Amino acid sequence: MILQDVRFAFRVLTRQPGFLLVAVLTLGLGIGANTAIFSVVKAVLLEPLAYRDPGRIVAVQTLWAKTHRPGAVSGGDYPDLIAEPSPFTAATRYSGGELPVETGGQAEYVEAFGTDAGFTDIFQLRPVAGRLIARDEFKAKAHLAMVSEGFAVRHFGDANRAVGQVVHIEQTVLTIVGVLPAAFHFPLKAEVWFPMPWENANRTAHNYRALALLKPGVTVEAARAQLSAVGARLQKEFPSTHKDKSFIATPLKDLFVERSRMTLWLLMGAVALVLMVACGNVANLLLARATARSREMALRAALGAGRARLVRQLLVESALLGLAGGGLGLLLAYAGVGALVRLAPPNLPRLEEIRVDRVALLFNLVVSLGAAGVFGLWPALRAARVDLHDALKQGGSRGLVGGGREWVRGALVSFEVALALVLTLGAGLLFRSFLALSAVDLGYHTEGRLVLTASIPARTQAQHLQAGATFERIFAALRELPGVSAVAGVMGLPSGPYGSDGSYAVEGMHDFSEGHYDRLPYAGFRLTSPGYFAAMGVPLLAGRDFNERDLYDAEPVAMVSATLAREVFRGQSPVGRRIKCGLDRDVWMQVVGVVGDMRNDNPATSPGQELYMAYRQHPFYANDLQIVVRAQGDVGGAARKTIAQIESDIPVKVSTMEQFHSDAIALPRFRTLLLIVFAVVAATLATAGVYGVMSYVAEQRRAEMGVRIALGATGADVVSILVGSGAKLAAIGLGVGLAIALAAGRLIQSMLFGVRPQDPVAIGGAVVLLSGAALLAALIPAVRAARVDPATALRDE
Fold first, then answer.
1. Which stretches in the chain have pLDDT values below 50?
2. Mind listing the pLDDT tens digit for each residue in 274-312?
3. pLDDT at residue 143 in the model
4. What is the pTM of this model?
5. What is the C-alpha to C-alpha distance for residues 534 and 537, in angstroms, rounded to an integer?
6. Which helix (H) or strand (E) holds 45?
7. Within 13 A of 92's CA, how many CA atoms are on the CB side?
8. Can you say whether residue 703 is alpha, beta or left, with left for phi > 0 and alpha for psi between -120 and 50 degrees?
9. What residues contact residue 148 under an 8 Å CB cut-off, 6+ apart?
10. Helix or strand run (H / E) with residue 590
11. What is the DSSP letter of 73?
């Protein structure tokens, strides 16, 4: 019986290829968008991390009372956090990042991290070649390393060949003892792991990230309670340093997705709205088709087909439409996922795991059949409810829209317009927000700024001091390149990977001694060479810049940002005052200048207090610099060759300030672009729905319009009547959609920059855009109806 229904439904659908094409294309867009975004959401948010017992792995973090934000832990606090009685079976610290790694005479920047003995226990690692670093080797800080399979193949051709080879990291020679599976990456996209050679036991220097593996049966809540108790004890023991901090355990997965979670759920909600608009459109098509098939339904009923039989047949047709739309959607999803991965910001986690897999195929099938039920049930019930006498007498060719039960078609159109407005307004808000973020005054220039990341290996103080001299030679040589107008170095480039922060004291205003740290102000710490601010286009507001005489043995000097000068010195000049911080030298530094504010953290964060120090006076932090080259044209290749001529073994990575800025706003750009695409699709479908209904209205009222014209009505009168009907449907939809959008505005408030959810420009633009499209869609069939010949219309009727 079902096979017969399917064969019959197939024949019926293929007899109207135009209807079939429009319905399948509409559904394909909606289902394809849902399948593609679901594939991303599933891989990033829903799938467990690809580690053993991922649910037991937590990040142990410092929780700051003032900001309620978690962060890194200090070396002094870490032993207390993992001491028995502990909720953890293993714990580890790690520190590192993109470090210069030399292998076989070639140096490159690789994600490399120093860690300790608990690292292999937490992830329960098994090498694909060689062995793991042993616990006692971690404790002894042995010069050993484990590398990823990808690193081993890239450098040695095979995982087994990598064992016994050596890598150089900042003049430390590490012997590779093991190769970890290619699928394992932590942290970030790490490829080299080694025993942490440095250790800072200071309780105010939060230099480490920490992980722990919960004991079997211990919940995250229990671990948080234990850490909170430790925090309370440390607050009593060290009131000056721990007054505003406690500790928290966060599931590792939550740490992975905290920045992207809201964006992905927003996109999932957006495509769900697109699918609902698509279903409304197809339901309207089916209702119009049901009117045309009323004579067919009447004949079948007269021949003995019951209402249940008719409903079943029509639902089978809807199911076939849904499956066909799902099939097209699957093809679109495969292409869409590839496009999404290419468009996604580089810091979106688990990008390499995003694909259309079996679960996505099942999701596609469920959505296809579910959509078929949504758009097909009411048209099926409506079509099966036939009046045999009227249908057979009139042939089902005429009726009155707006009268009887045809109000459903108008309600569906209003529903589509409402959902389209929600999406359009959301896209408008994000677009306005992104424009504001892109146009914000950064405090520095990005155009024409090349960025060279370079590292000079150094271990001893003499080597660190020599690194500064080498950088000066590099700066001088780069200034001689054609088109170059300025060169300078910095540790802590805006939106860059490096930088530091902490407490500081002004002489005569603050006490920097033990027991008074909780009363000190907080600032970002950055090291710069002479000419850095000029190279970045940052104005010097008072005093002087650093110069070539600001060396290690000279009087220590510093510069401050305008915000620090304003908030701390309150109208007095900071130039000539002395300032101290705990970066690396316990010395007072004389403030020699004030510079303009820069958005150093990211473009969305207002400038904060910044303390700039002469890089050659802090050599232990200044052998890894980012060199800013202000130049006309592309000088990247020439700059790389110039550095190689001075020191051939210095690894160099070339980028631009524009790329740094682009990466910093990549996530807002990604969600804005996708929401605009989904809003355009929804608005197009809603406009098509208005056009379809108004075309049907015009056809159904053709005779009425003929009579009106015969009695003296003008074409403008006819257009006004029909457009008015469409305008009412659109107005209802716009009103409902606006109410929904305003109520839901708080959901995206955290994603907006410089724009409120009630932004009048975004609201006005969305309403004007959709109302204009709806009126145009209603106008076309209205103009066509106004040209009807009264005699022809009456004769046809």
1. 395-405
2. 999 999 888 888 877 766 666 666 666 666 666 677 777
3. 93
4. 0.85
5. 5
6. none
7. 26
8. alpha
9. 179, 180, 181, 182, 184, 185, 190, 191, 192
10. strand 589-595
11. B
